[in-house]
Records
---
Amino acid sequence: MMTTASLTNIHTLVLDLETYSSVNLQKSGVYPYVEAPDFQILIAAVSVNGEEPIVYDLASGDQLPDEIIAAIKAEGVLKKSYNCSFERICLSRYLGYQTGEYLSPKSWQDTMILALYNGLPRSLKQVGEVLNLTDKKMEEGKDLIRYFCVPCKPTKSNGFRTRNLPIHDSKKWSTMLAYCKRDVVTEMEIEDRLKNYPVPDFVWDEFYLDQKINDTGILVDVDLIDNAIALDDTSKEELTSSMKELTELDNPNSVSQLKTWLSEQGVDVSSLGKKDVEKYAENFSGTDIGQMMELRKMLSKSSIKKYYAMKTALCSDKRIRGMFGFYGAKTGRWVSRIVQLQNLRRNDLEDLDEARELVRLGRKEAITALYDDIPDTLSQLVRTAFVAKPGCKFAVADFSAIECRVVAWLAGEQWVLDAFANNEDIYCATAEKMFHVPVKKHGENGELRQKGKQCTLSCSYGGGAQAMIAMGALEAGMEQEELAPLVATWRDANPNIVKFWWDIDKAIKHCIVYKSKERVGKVSVEYRNGMLFITLPSGRRLSYVKPKLDYNKFGTESVVYWALDMSKKWSRIESYGPKFVENITQAVARDILMNSMINLKEFNIVAHVHDELIIEVPEDADLDYICSIMGKAPAWADGLVLRADGYDTKYYKKD
C-alpha cells in the first residue's frame, strides 16, 4: 500500500471503478444508477502520477486515502479515465454530492475521447485489440461484472440471495481486483501509445461544455409520461383484442401465426416489416386483411417506447441526464442515448395543446372519442414530455440548410452562397440553376422546386438515382427514368462541388502513396505514421486508421481504411472523394453547432438534436437575440452565410 508521504504533490490520477447498483445502468444511464439506495463503489484502482496502480478494495473495508479524495476534488489535479463521466458521477455520489450537483468536469480527461479522436473504436476492449497492447482488457470482465455488479437471481442453490458479495466467491473476487487494476494499466498504455496524437485543448473545452449539458439534464412532465404509458397499455389490450376477434388467432402479434392466417385468406407474404404492413393496409383497404394491417400498424408504434425509456431514466428531481454521447461518430457529431432524441416522431396534430392536456390528465374517454389512432396520438406527443422548469421557457433554434451551406462554402460554389446571402429559397434557386427558368414557390414553375429540393438533398455527396430514390423521389411523384438526367443536371449546375469531390479524392490518394501533405481549399490532408488526417477549418482533425489504395468491385481504385462497420466490427471500410466530402461537411457543420453552443453557454442549454439547440431561458429572454448569436459564423469560417430560426415554447415540439 502506498504511504501517505508518497501521495504528496499529486499531478495526475488515472482511475477505474467497479460498482454495484440495482438500477440497470444500460437503460437508465449513470445518473439514476448512482441514486439507487444500494449504490456502492466496490473497487477503486488508482495510478498516481503514472505510477503502478493501487487497488482499494472498498467492498471489503478499504478506504480511499484523504490525499486521493482531496486530489479527486481538486481542479488542479488532472483525472483520467475511460468513459470518465461514469467515474466522475459515481465519485460525486460517493463524496456526498446530491442530485444535480457533480464534480466539475474541467479537471477530467477521457481516454475514450482520445481513442475516438484518433479514429479508434469506442470500447476499451476493442481499442486494446486494435493497438495490440501488452496489457489488454481481461476477457473475464463481463462474467465478473455480471456476478458482482448487478443483482443476481435468487435460487435455492444460492440461499435465495439477490446479490453476490466478495465472501461468496473469494477466488472470483481476487480476479475482480486484478481486472480493475488491469483496466487502469490498459488506459495508461493507450495514453502512451497515442501521446503524439493528443486531443487539442479546444476540443477538451468542448467536452467540458458537453458534460455540463449532460449534468444539467432536461425536465420532463411525469404526469404526461405516466398517463401516456397507462393509455398505451389500455390501447394495446384493446387493439390485441380486436385483432384476436378479427383473426381468431391465439396470438395475433405472432408473425408466424399472422402469416398463416394471411395465407388462409389467399395472401402469401414473405415479410411483415413496417413498409410491408403499410403496403398491405393500402392494397387491401376495406377488407379484413386491410383492417388487420391497420391494427398491426397502430400496435407497432415504436416511438411510444420512449415514454418507458424516459420513466426508466428519471432522476429524483424529474430531470433526465446523460442523453448525449460526445464524439459519437467519426465526424465528431454526438450520439443520442437513453431516450434517442434524434429520431423522435414529428408532431402534426392541429390541436396539439388540447391533445397533450387530455393525455396529461389521463382523460381516456375524451381521447378515444376524439382520436381514432391512440398510439399515433401518443407517438406525436413524445417530444412534448420535455418541459421547461417553472418561470422559464424553451428557446428552440436551429440552422437553416446547414449542410447545403457548408458544402457550397467548402467548394466555393458561389451562386449557392449568393442565394443564401440574398435569403432566397435554395430549392427554387437550385431549380432555376438547373432548368434555366424562373421558379417561385407556389408560383411560376413552382412544380420544379421539388426537383431542386430532391437533388439538393440527394446529390451533394456523389449520390445518383438510387440516392434520390432512398430520399423519397418516387414518393414525391418523380418518375424513375428521369432521375439519372436530373442528377446530371444538378452536377452541371454545381461544377465546383463536383470538382471538390475529386480534388479531395486525388489529394488523399496522393498523400497515401507519397506519405505527404496536401492542401485542398479550406482543408488539408496528411498521411503520417500509418494514419490519414484531414484538418478542418476549425483546426480539429478527422482521423483514418491505416489507409491504403485498393480496387473495388467495379474495378476502380478507391481508398480503404480500418473502422467500425455497421455491425460494430473492426474491419476495412471503402471510401472515395464524395464520401470523404460528406465526412468533412458534416464535421464542419458539427463544429459550427459547437461554436454556437460556446457562444450561448451563458444560457442553459439542456438538449440538442442534429443542428438544433433547446435552451431553457427565463420567460422574458429575447429569442431573436439567441438566433442572432447562433447564426454568427465562427472566425475561421469567413464568407459562410448562416441563418438560425427559432421559436418559444413551454414544452418541446416541432414548430
Note: DSSP finds 26 helices and 19 strands in the chain.
---
Amino acid sequence: MVRKFDYLVIGSGVAGMSFALQVADKDHRVALICKTTIDEANTAKAQGGVAAVTDLEKDSFEKHIQDTMIAGDYISDIEAVKQVVYNAPAGIKRLVSWGVNFDKKTDGTYDLHREGGHSEFRILHHADDSGYEIQRGLIEAVKHNRYITLFENHFAVEIITQHHLGIEVTRRTPDIECYGAYILDPDTGKVDTFLSHITLLATGGIGAIYASTTNPNIATGDGIAMAYRAKATVKDMEFVQFHPTALFNPKEKHPAYLITEAMRGYGGILRLPNGEEFMQKYDKRLSLAPRDIVARAIDKEMKIHGIDHVCLDVTHKDPEETKKHFPNIYEKCLTIGIDITKEYIPVCPCAHYLCGGIKVDLNGESSIHRLYAVGECSCTGLHGGNRLASNSLIEAVVYADAAARHSQSVVDSYDFNTKVPEWNDEGTMTNEEKILIAQDMKEVEQTMSNYVGIVRSNLRLHRAWTRLDLLYEETEELFKRVKATRDICELRNVINVGYLVTRQAIERKESRGLHYTIDYPKHAYDFK
C-alpha cells in the first residue's frame, strides 16, 4: 500500500508531537508514526523537568549558556546553545498553550527546582513526573487535531532515498534526498510505502543497547540507524550519559526506575551503604556535580568496596516536604520496602541519554535534504560532551519549532516521488531464527555494558568492535532472507548504533565529557 502525506513524523515524544502540532493545518496533512502507543516515549519517563530562564531578577540567559558550556566540556556548539537558551521561554509558553501544567507557588510564579550543574533555580516541573505531564498535554492536543493521522504500533523499517531507485548513494553523495519511509503494519504484516514532502525523525534514544537503562524497551536507536544506513552524518555517538542515580532493583533493569537529579538539588546526599560520604574526593560541588563526574565516582566507589550500589540520603529533610516534592518516588520506593523519609535510597548508574546522533543544522535539517531530526536522536551540538540536566526536553521543543518554521517555508516546493518501488516482502522466519534474534539482542546489551560503559579502554572498545562486527554480518545475512519484523529490525538497529558508539569512542583519543578512557586519563584521580 502507498500512502501520501505532506509531513511524515516518525516518533511520538515531545519532539515529534511538538513538530506535528505546529505544521498540521487544512492544507498540510501529517502522519504521526508511533512504534507502540502514543503514550510510550522517553518523554514520559523524565522526572526532573524543563530548564528555562523565567526569573530574570535572579537568573540570566548568560548564566544558563555558561552552565551548558561547562557541562558540555566546552565542545558544545555555542550557536546551538544560544538558540535553545534564548528561545526556551517561548517554548515553555507553547507547552502551556497546548495544555501542559507546571507547578507554581502561592504567588503564581513558577516553583523552580535546581539540578546538578545549574548555577540557579531554573527547572520548571510538575511534581516529580514532569515528562508524563508534558506527554499527557501533547497527546490531548494531538488527538484533537483533525489534520494529524495517528498510526500506533507501526514500525519504521527504512527511510527512502535515491538508493531505492537504483541509484548509487555514498557518504560523499552531495544531494541525497528523503522521499518518505517504509513502514511495517503489524496488522497486515506488510511493509507499506509512506511518501512525504518532509520527513522528521523523532525516534528518541539508544538506552536499550545496554543491559540496564532508564529508557523504555523501545529505545533501540531506530532513527539513528536508519539515517546512518541512508548515509546521513552521525556525530558524537561516544557521548552516552549514564544517569548516576537509578533505583537499584535487580528485578527492574529495562527500564530501571529513575531517581531524579532534582532530589540531589533538593539536598540529597550520596553516601556509601555504611553512611560515609564520598563525593568530596571527586568534586568540590559534591553531590551536585555534573552527571558524568557523579556516575564515574559512584562506579569507582562500587569497584573499590565490591558493592553493587551506593545510597542517596534525604532522611535529614522534612518528611512531609519530601513526600510533597517527590510523591511518585516515595510511593515507588515503598513498593520495595523503603521509606525514603527514614531510610537511604539504594542507587546505581545506568544508561540514560545520548548526547550525539543525527547531525542537524540550526533548522533541525540533516545532511539529507527533506529529512529533519529532532530530540534525542539528533545531534544539535547543544550538549557537547555531556548534557546539562533538564536541557533535553527544552531542546526538543525549541528545535521542533525551528524545524517546523523552516520546513513550512519549503514544503510546498516538493513533490511526491512516485517512482519509489514498493517493499519486497518475500521470505519467512522460523521459530529457531526468532530465538537467535533474542539471544543476539542480549549479546549486544552485554557487550556494550561490559566494554563500552562508564569507563572505557582501547582494549575493551576493540573487543566490542570485534563482537559487533560478527553480529552485524550474521544479522544482515538473516535480514536478506526473512520477512521484515519488528524484532529483526530492532536487532539490526541496535547493532548499527552499538557500532557507531564504539567506533566514535575509538576515534576520540582523549577523555572528554562522558567519554572517559583509562588510556587517556583526564583527571589526577583515577576512575579505572
Note: Residues 458-481 form the longest helix (24 residues).
---
Amino acid sequence: MNRFYGFDLGDAESAVTRLDSTKDLIPEVLNINEAKSFITAYALLKDGKLLIGEGACYNPDAIKRKERFKSRFLIDPEALSDVKSFASGVLGELYLSGQLIQGEDCCFYIGCPAGWDRVAREEYRMIFEKTGYPPAKIISESRAALVSACQSKHLQVGYDILNKPVLVVDIGSSTTDFAYINGGREVELKTGGEVFLGGGIMDEILLEESIKRSPNEKKIRNIFKESEPWQSYCDFAARRLKEKYFSDEDYWKHNTCTQPVTIPHGLIPVKLTLTINEEIADQLFNQKVERLENKSFKEVFLDSLKQAKEAITDRQPELIFLTGGVSKMPVIRTWCRQAFPDAVVISSSEPEFSVASGLAWCGKIDEELRQFKEEISRLVESSQVERIVESHINELYHDAVESMVEPILEHVALPITERWRSGSIEKLAEIDAIMEKEIDSYLHTDEARQLLMKPVSKWLKTVSYELEEFTMPICVKHNVPYSALSLNSYLSMSDIEINVEAKSLFALKEITWLIDATVSIVIGLLCGGGGIALVANGLPGIVAGAVVSLLILALGKEKMQEMLLNSRIPKPVRLMIPKSHLKARLDVISSEVKNSLYAKLEQEKNEEITERLVKEISLQIETCLSKMAEVVEIPLG
C-alpha cells in the first residue's frame, strides 16, 4: 500500500490530503470543489443532487441543508446521518475529480477529537465504511497534529518531540482540543479532551458587530430569519475576514480591513460590509458571551489552559504545539506562554492543514511500522536469537557460578553441617537429601535472584551487542532509531523482564558436587584429612582421636568414610569440631569447588537442561523485542 489519505472533517471546515509514499515528500492538500479548505456543509437539491462545501450554503434549490453537525455527533442521533451524507459527498467529489480511483490499494485516516472514547470512534469509523470508503482508521486529531510536527522539516524538532512532554492545543471552529503526550503516548486529561470553545464564537461576534453598524440591519436580520444558509454564508465570510486581519495584525491596525457581502433578496440585493479593526478585534477576545456562561473567549481559554495544567500529573510540557486556524493569532501564543512559561510554543506554517497532513502521514508511518514489525516477527520466529544465546550460554554458567557458589556454601552448606554438629541431623548420610531440598529452596529466594541480577545483566549486554547486528539493519531500513530495539537501552531488569531463575542455572542434578563436597569436608575433618587433624581438648578428645586412628588403620580410609556416613557419631565427638574449622575449610575449597563446577557444567552438563534454559531465555528476549517493536514511534491506535 502506497497511497494514504487524511480526512480532517471539521465542524466548520474540512480538508483532505493525500500522500503517495513512492513519490511525495509531504502530503498534498486536495481540492474539493476548487477549495483546499472547504465548508463542512451539505445540501440535498430538488433533483436529488448532493452538494457539499460553500455552494451548499446558499443554493436556492436546496430542500435540505445541514452544517456544523460534527460537534453534535455525541449528543444528537441525527448528526450521524448528516456526517454520512457529507462524507458521501466528499467521496463522490474525489472519485469525480480522479483524485481517488475505484479499487486502488489505499486507506483513509480520519480525525476525531481526543475526548472521544473507543465506542464513539468505532461508530464514527463505521459511517465511512458503510458509505463505501476504502479501509478507514480513526485517529485522534491531536495525535495527527503531533505527527505533522514530527514530520515537518521547518520545525526542526523531528523525533526529538517524541522524547519531550508535549501539550497539543487544537483550536477548531467549535471546540478546543487538549492532548498531553509524553514519550509519544497520549494521556487523557481530566478536561475530557475537549472544551466547547472555538473560533466560531469570534466569527459570530464579528458578524454581529458588522450587522449593528450596517444601515441595512433590519433587512439583514429578517433575511437571516428566513434563510439560515445566508446567515451561514455571512458567518463564513466573517471567518475569512478575521483570518485576513490576524495574518498581519500590525498592518491592519492602521488600515481598513473590510469585506463586502451581497445577499440576494427580491429585486434589490442587500449589501453587508463586514469590518474589523483594533477595537472589534479586542471585542472578539474580551466580549462576554451567553453561550460561554457570560464569559469571554479569553477567560474560557485561559481557564482551560489552567485546567489542562492541573490535570497533568507527570512532567509539565516542554513544548506547546498549536494547530487549527485560530492558532495563527499571536495572542494565542502569548496566553500559552503565560500558562506554561517554561515551554516552547510552536506551530506549523499552515496550522489549518496540520491535522489533515498529519493524518496522511499517520497512514504512511502505520504502513512503515507494519512492515517493520513483520521483519522483527520474522527475526523472532527464526532461530537466530537461540543461536546467539546458545553460543554464550557457557559464559552465563561461568558468571553465575562465580556469583552463587560462595553464598550457597555460606547460607546452605555451613548451616546444614552445623545442624549435624549440634545433633539435629543424626547421620552424615542424611545430609544428601536435606542439602538437596535446602539448595532448592535457596535458589528460589529473592536473595538468589538479586545475586544473579548483576551477572545476568552483564551477560545480556554481550548478547544484545551481537543481536544488534540483525536489528540495526531493520531499523535503518525503516527509519527507526536503532536504539529503539537495543536491549542495552532497556537493561533495567524491571523494564525488560528477562528473568533467569537460579534454579534453572543450578539444576539439582548438576549440583551433586556441592553435596559431595560438603559431606567430604565433615568426613575429612573427622578423619584428619585435608591437613586438618581432629583436635580436641581433654581426655575424651584423646580417646576419640585414638579410636578414629585405630579404625583408619584397621579398615582403611575409604571404608572408614563409608562407615562414618551411616554411623551415629556421638554429639560430644561432633562438637569437638569447632564451627570456625568448618567455615575455614569451606572458604579454602571455594575456588576448588568453582573450578569443579565449571568443568561439570561445561563438559558434563545435562543437554536437556541446557536446551530448556536456552529456549526460555531466547523466548524472553524475543518477547522483549516484540514489545519494543510495538512501542516504536507514536502509538497510532
Note: The radius of gyration is 39 Å.
---
Amino acid sequence: MIQKRIDELIKILNKASYEYHTLDMPSISDQEYDDYYAELVKLETENPSLVREDSPTVRIGATVIDGFEKVTHERPMMSLGDIFNEEEIRDFDNKVRKVVANPTYVCELKIDGLSVSLLYQDGKLIRGATRGDGTVGENITHNVKTIKSVPLSLPQDIDIEVRGEIYMPKSSFEALNKERREKGEKEFANPRNAAAGSVRQLDSKVAASRNLSTFLYHIPNAIDYDIHSQEECLNYMKELTFTVNPNIIHAKNIEEVIEYISYWQVHRPELPYEIDGVVIKVDNLQDQSRLGFTARVPKWAIAYKFPAEEVLTQLKNIEFCVGRTGKITPRADLTPVHLAGSIISSVTLHNEDYIKEKDIKIGDTISIHKAGDVIPEVVEVKKDRRTGEEIDFKMITHCPICGTELVRKESEAAYFCLNPDCDARKIEGLIHFASRDAMNLDGFGENIIEDFYNMKYLHTIDDYYTLHNHKESLKELEGFGEKSINNLLVAIEKSKENSLEKLLFGLGIRHVGKKNAVILAEYYQSLDNLMEATLEELVDIPDIGEIIAESVVGYFAKDENKRCIEKLKEYGVNFQYIGKEKLETEEFSGKTFVLTGTLSIPREEAKELIEYRGGKVTSSVTSKTSVVVVGLSPGSKYDKAKELGVVIWEEEEFLQKVNYQK
C-alpha cells in the first residue's frame, strides 16, 4: 500500500515537473506540488528501502564524491566550426550545395552553457557526462540528477543517449551572485562560468542550490530510432519529455537562416538565458552522412558566433599614419582577433594624449570593442597582465614619410606634417577622392592608387580625368588588361555625373564631412556660388560654424586649389547640386521597398539607389510594402509578398529602373 502511494506521488510530481520546467504549462499549483512533495519525503523517510532512483527527492542533492570518474564516449562529442559574418554563412551553404542539391537547414540557438551527454538504460538515467576533450569526459551524474529539467526516467523503456547543454538561467545567475556578494565571496563573471563551476562540484547539494537547467538537441545515433531528419530528432526528444528549445526553425534556404540570425542578434537580450550564437545544421540525416566530417568537426553543421562585445588581444607595435590633412595618427598593430563579425589586426590610438591617458604600452594586453558596433577601439589596458617587458610609448617628432618636423597646434591634440608635397598626404587625398562616399571611383583600391601615384600617372585629384590618355601604357602593367582598364575609365566617366555634395566631400576640405558637404551643396546649389561665399555668410548657415567656415574660405583662397577646380570643370565634372528632387520618380518617391535574396550589387548600394530616388527601405514585408526586390534564393519575404499581393521586381528589372550600369 505504501509502495503504491509512493509510485503515485512520483508519477504526479514528475509529470508536474515536466509541465513546469519543459512545457511551461503547469497543471497544478505550487502549493499542491509542495503538499505532494512533503508527503513523499515523509513516506521515504519512514520507508528508506522503498526510495526509487527516479524520485524527485534526489533533486535536492545528497551525494558527495571524492573525485570525478573519467568517461569514454562511445561516439565522440565533436565541437563545431565557427563562422562570424554573412559571407562565411553563404560560403558554408555553397560547400553544402556541392554535395546536396537543395539543402534545408534547422537553426537552433547556441546556448552559452556546458555540453552534456545523458545516457539512459531501460528508460532510466544511468549517467551524465561532460564533453571533456570530445573522447573522454567526466562523470557528473550526481549533479545532473539535481537538475529539474532532466528526466530521471522516460515514458519508454529504451536505451538511448541524448546530448545538449546545461545552462544557468539569468535569474539564477543574478540570485547566485547576490548571495555571493552578501557573503563577501567572489562573483561569477557570467552564467556559463557559473554553470560549469556548478556541475563540477563534488557535493551535489551545491549544484542543486544553483537552479541549473538544460536544453537537449542531439541523438548521436538517431537513425537507429527510425529518425531521418534533425527536425524529427527534436520532436522525438520532446516525446521523451526532454526540454527542447522552443526557438528553433526549419529554414528552406540560406536566406531564411540569415533572417533568423539577424532576428536573434537583436532580440537575444529578451531571452531568460544567455546565447552566444546560432547553430546551423543540414536537416536531412542522410545528407549529413554524405557530407561527413573533417578530423575535428562535422561538415554538415556550423556555429555562427554573435559579435563579442569585448575581446582581448596583444598590442604588438605602434605605427604612425599620415592623413590627407597631414594629421599624424598613432595606430596599434594587434595580434589578429575576431570582433563583431570581422578580424581586427589594428586599431587607431587617436593621438598622444589618448595614449597617455589610457597608459598604453607596446606589449600590453588590451581589451577592444566596436564603438557603435562599427569602429574598433581600445577599452582598457589589462595592467594586471604586465610582465615588466612592455615598452613605454614615445611620440615621434618628424613625419615618418617625408621627414618634415611635426607641429602640434595649441588648439589641437594631434601633431601635423605641414609639408604640402608629402607623398603620404597626397596619396591619402587621392584615396579619399575615389572613396565610395566621395566620387565613388569603383575599382580604385588603395593599392592601385598608390601604384599609379608612384608611376606618376596620378599626382593630384584632377589627374584621374586624364588617365584615359595613358590607356595603352596602363594595359601593359602587370595585373591589368583591356577589360580592367576600361572598367576604371568607365567609373571615372560615370563620376562626372555625381551631385555636388560628393565632389565637395571628395575635395578633402578640412572639417567638411559628408553631412556638411550636403548642407553646403543644398544651400549654394553650385560650386561656383560656394567659392564666392564669404566667411560671414557661411557662419550664418545652420550647422556650419566658424571653424568649418574658415576652412572652406581658406581652401578656395589657395591658388593650387583654384587651378585644380578649373581643371575639373574643363574635364566635365558636374559642379551642380542634383539632389533628391531631381532624381525622384513616380516609381520610387514615397514608396516602401524590401530587399530579399542574394543581389549582384551590395545591399547598401541598392538601398542608396532607392533612397536617392525618394523611396524608403524596410526589413519586413507588410501590407504597406510597395515593392519587394528579389535576388537569387529569396527567403520567406518573397513568399509573404506573394501572399499579400505586393508588387515584385526581379533584380534585373530593378537595376533597369535605376539605370544601373554594371
Note: The two ends are 84 Å apart (CA to CA).
